[in-house]
Amino acid sequence: MNETILTAERQHLANLLEAIQRCAYFLHASEQKINWPLTATQLAQRKKDPQLFESLAAINERFAKLQDTLGAAMRHSAMLMSEPTDSFLKVLSFFEKNGVISSVSAWQLCRAARNLAAHDYEVDYAAIAEHFNTLHDLQGMLYQTSVRLLAHTLENLAVAPASSDFTQEFTRIAA
Q1: Would you give per-residue pLDDT tens digits along the chain (175 residues)?
Q2: E-assigned strand segments in the chain
């Protein structure tokens, strides 16, 4: 029975790792539809462009989804490594010490940028441009964290993504 529980927990982590690759793939796809950096003038001129604002909405959602999935995978892999998971700060500290995240403060910066979009309904095009340019600048950190987390779980837990459906694209995106 205990082996079945462990197998299920490892499978859950493998699914999360695949989801990370999928999230990165779709975030990258949305990012490719935008000419970076954004400016307030561009946004004001295209304020009624549904394709632009649908792409921006997708970037918000996919950035958040990637960070959330990374967080869930870090917590779950820490649990499988018998590390403290009672607070996410302990999880972040563990992964900072192991070189998966560059720093706790960098992770928190991503979280703050992500949360601003979820709670702020901005109409100032300069602020909107700044927000999306910030997400664009931070995406590389999330991609590299993803790469390091996948390597860490493979090395320490022998757990890889559940399927290789997104592996080739993920590797190219994160390079």
Answers
A1: 578 999 999 999 999 999 999 999 999 999 999 999 999 999 999 999 999 999 999 999 999 999 999 999 999 999 999 999 999 999 999 999 999 999 999 999 999 988 876 555 578 899 899 999 999 999 999 999 999 999 999 999 999 999 999 999 999 999 9
A2: none
What type of residue sits at position 136?
A: H
Written as six digits, the tokens of 116 are 């601003």
The model scores a pTM over 0.90? yes
| Structural domain boundaries enclosing 90 | 2-174
In the chain, the number of structural domains is: 1
Amino acid at site 105: S
Selection from 129, 126, 127, 123 nearest residue 52 by Cα: 129
